User: Fold these one by one.
Assistant:
Number 1:
Amino acid sequence: MHHAALPKTPTGITGLDEITGGGIPQGRPTLVCGEAGCGKTLMSIEFIVRGATEFNEPGVFMAFEEKADELAMNVASLGFDLDKLQAEKKIRIDHVHIDRSEIEETGEYDLEGLFIRLNYAIDSIGAKRVVLDTLENLFSGLSNQVLLRAELRRLFHWLKDKGVTAIITGERGDGKLTRQGLEEYVSDCVILLDHRVINQISTRRLRIVKYRGTVHGTNEYPFLIDEDGISVLPVTSLKLEKAVSSDRVSSGIPALDKMLGGKGFFKGSSILVSGTAGTGKTSIAAYFANETCSQGKRCIYFAFEESPKQIIRNMHSINVDLQQYVNSGTLKFFASRPTLYGLEMHLVAMYKLIKQFKPHAVVLDPITNLITVGTVSEVKAMLIRLIDFLQEEQITVMFTALTLNNAVTEQTDEGVSSLVDAWMLVRDIEYNGERNRGMYIMKSRGMKHSNQVREFIITDKGLDLVDVYLGPDGILTGSAREAQMLQEQTGEVLRDYAVGRKDREIIRKRKVLEAKISSLQTEFESVEDELNKTYQEEELIKQVADKTRKEITAIRRGSVNDTIKIKTRKK
Amino acid sequence: MSPKAETKRYELRLYVAGKTLKSVTALANLKKYCEEHLQGQYVIEVIDLLLQPQLAEGDQIFAIPTLVRKVPEPIRKIIGDLSNEEKVLVGLNIRPA
């Protein structure tokens, strides 16, 4: 049987709504707890502000800690103008001041005053959202704990009856989510914020401890507080149901494209370029970025080692002008020292930038440096998330990774080689007193690719791949290859010469033959002429003889001929 | 109820929410103590927050009933039904602690 989905209220906080599958439970209280300084107040105020500005849901912020003006000042750095929103009656901030030294308790009381205040605040602006920050301050201000608990229970019921979506914040206590066990009262949704420092690097994390009646991400999600508020990174998508593309993108190196079935990488795939120091990984990455931008597409280059200016300068030496794309806005560099902040923060920062810039391709150069701020497994987990995210967005990503010792292992580094779709290895080939670069394609999922080692050469004209020579002593590269080529060229010239000589002899022979043929023909003609002459003479003789014989015959008959003559004359 | 110029004058405000038992008890207690100790020196203003909820914020009221001593300064607050006379008198600074 199909039940109606739990209605949810979007918080408007980047990423949080994705983790919760749409937001926090509508019309119900949600508990946000964590230690001091973990961002509880900020998260709750953002919930109110986003509600007012983006979802047209006015909100009441009841502050038990900070005064209204202090609060306004604190969040002004995030671009939230609380005074303006208050003036527009979109939000209302009510500061509940509780000072034990000013208060004497005697006899029975209840918190009806708070209810009335809250009710009045809600009704005055038609609020749909309520934040109580930090409710537990009541416990420090009042001594009757039993009464407080009863009143809190009543408050949560009252909030539900009122139908407002509420966030209640609470400080984390020993062994409990909150000091006063508020989680007992809020049974629908509990979000835990955490702020940890590992290796001197602090990382904020968020976890949905409980969300009744709905699927939610159960992991710890890092989040970032910056000038745009809170961004939570929904790091691992729950499904492996990404759209895939069979479009291809060029690597920028025609010879490399040729090795990859002639067309290059798949769009939206992940590519790892690994190699030892100085093998030209950055150059390959820069070429890829250059190619992407030259097609008018956008690219982000995350540099963890060199500054953007350094990369641009260095790439000029191989005839790649990245500056023009930086100027035209299609290429964006984002350089940060890995140690600047934690791994997760890097991820969140990248995620945010990618969401904003919407690039077609992303370069991470190099991922190896991230190891300095996390363990191998952490880096791997982070890269899985990044790859997941990029695949979902159909963004092609190229990582470069430094292999420290290629003799020990080729299975890189951050263990990402199994995750990526294509893996290229650039390796030093040491032979004949020099070092040259050889490139292999270790794998390339879903396409025909060359299994051959190519020599990878970097010249001031650019990058290229050449076939290596397999000589009697093995693979020949660099000057040995040049020497081999020279030798082959010499051989070719010699062979050409030999062939030429033979050709000429044949021509000569043909000429001799032709001369002979023509002389024979002449001879034949003269013989034929001779024969003809004899034949004609004989014919002539025969004719003359015939004629003579006839005349003689006529003469013998004599009279006949004369008579006829006479008769003719008489007439 | 007109106080003399030289005597201390008390302006008291009692916040209630409807005529609940606690509120009624508090008001009765307060009137009793004032008559006993502050005769002619006090003014009691009863504010029902159910009728005037907008007033709760100004005096930072969250508990009901709350007695606020507006004058003399500094402002003092006593929450509860005021059943403990000693505490109330100390709290209002009528009797030194």
Note: The two ends of chain B are 27 Å apart (CA to CA).
Number 2:
Amino acid sequence: MQQLEEKLITQDEGTPATGLKVVWREFKKDKLALASLIVLVGIIAVTFVWAFMINKEELMQISLYDEFAEPGTNGFILGADQGGSDVLGQLIIGARNSLTIAIAITVITGVLGVAIGLAAGYFGGIVDAIIMRVMDFYMTLPTLMIIIVFVTIIPKYNVVTFVLIMSAFLWIGTARLIRSKVLSEGNRDYVNASKTMGTGNFAIMFKGILPNISSLLIVELTLNFAGNVGIETGLSFLGFGLPPDVPSLGTLVGAASNPVVLENNWWVWFPASMLILILMLAINYVGQALRRAADSKQRLG
Amino acid sequence: MWKTILRRVLLMIPQLIVLSLLIFWLAKLMPGDPFTGLITPETDPHRIEELREMAGLNDPWYVQYWHWITGAVQGDFGDSYAFKDSVSSLIGDRALNTLWLSLFSVILLYLIAIPLGIYAGRYQGTWFDKGTVLYSFISYAIPTFVLGLLFLFFFGYKLDWFPTSGTVDVKYEAGTWDYFWNKVYHLILPGITFALLGTTTVIQYLRSEVIDSKTQDYVKTARSKGVPMKKIYSKHIFRNSLLPIAAFIGFTITGLLGGSIFIETIFGYPGMGQLFIQSLGQRDYSVITALVLLFGFLALLGSLISDIVMSIVDPRIRIDN
């Protein structure tokens, strides 16, 4: 009996898998998640390296002779668009731009969301009340329309202002999530212990609470990344996204707003649509696998 | 009960005021004014200045805001210079089209999502369940405009099953059955796209609700009393799971409004979303301002409806006095 108990205890004490190990186990168990991760990393690596090797001036040169050249003709693997520019080259540059913008927005909204969510959840009281009122109001705004209006009326419109406009409206979700987690975390013993020992508020927030909610934050950021790719390409598709000199995947798909192109020149918009779809599926699937890994109840492995 | 609803409605008033102030500020940021479109090389600058003075554009901002908001409440948003028509009558036609599309989509959405959610939960772990989970994942991840374009390309152009734009063919006379069916025919493709994209939340919610309720006491009680499993699902669990879904309807409407910008642009459907994009292209600022205000108001209304339905369905979340 005693032996059995000892055995049980030693088994329990075998250090539980933490951090990256848990994530790795989850991905090993779910092959589709692993495939998504490989596809995602592959696409990012290929587009970023390849985009460096493309001469943008040459790519965007208008050549009427090659107008809507079909795939495989005139040396265009994926054909050419209305201006006779190579679709494949635009696809690579567009993907690189869309991914870069989405990452930038994800980072900015992440920092904003964490800072505001931490402040609201940790300090509580009047600070929390004010921030919550502001966020409640933000939530009910027709965000997409207001972003589009801002994009139209801003005088100096470029990539930086676009990223800033998007970020100004997209931090709410992260801030709400962080706030609710910090609220429940703030009453834990370790926080109270730190307070008793006289640790400063900032040290508790960033060194104590933040690491404890980091797994959740990573999941949130991954899903935000997918969302931002969707919103940016969507806006660029409508013509209110990246400025014309910075092609995005959405810009290529936008060629299909012309019914003639949509019906007859599928090679202009179809590959970009598929790339967006694959990116969205892969990032979201990776995000879901990470979420399962972060929650011990849902883990597969 | 009524107290809760009244409180919730009162809570909306400050939100509306802040929303209108924000939009008024946005409108002021927009370049030009209603008379910019009238300026030609022969126009006397003094005449324009007179017109501006008469229209109150030189008044302090709070006076202008008051004029604008009192007009807006009565449905007067000024004139659209691109369409040479009053903004309210312009939006009126489009709003009806958007309403039909939203209504049609919501009905389709629930027709698809409710059976999928219930059966996936009931037969948890089967192929049907796995298929449903996969489907709801894909419909969650796919962007509106990508699915819209693919459907339009395959079902509209390649297979030629559905019309590719408009609300009704000109050859039909208004008021006849043919006219009505042709209208519905035009709604099908955008409606299905809309519905498929919106199903995720409802399916996931229903599925997990049904799975949870399998182990609930009321189900065990019914089972031990000898109620057949089939009846437990169709009566007991179905009702309990469905009530919270009713509360989603407000948020569903809000979501549809946002998506209507994409769907209506892609399917050439003349609703408010398409009008918004067109007006932006023509820099028709009075229409843009009115539409943003209207969409903001409808979004607030959606969350109000959701809250009210929720408080009827679930007494626990009523605001206590």
Note: The longest strand of chain B covers residues 79-80.
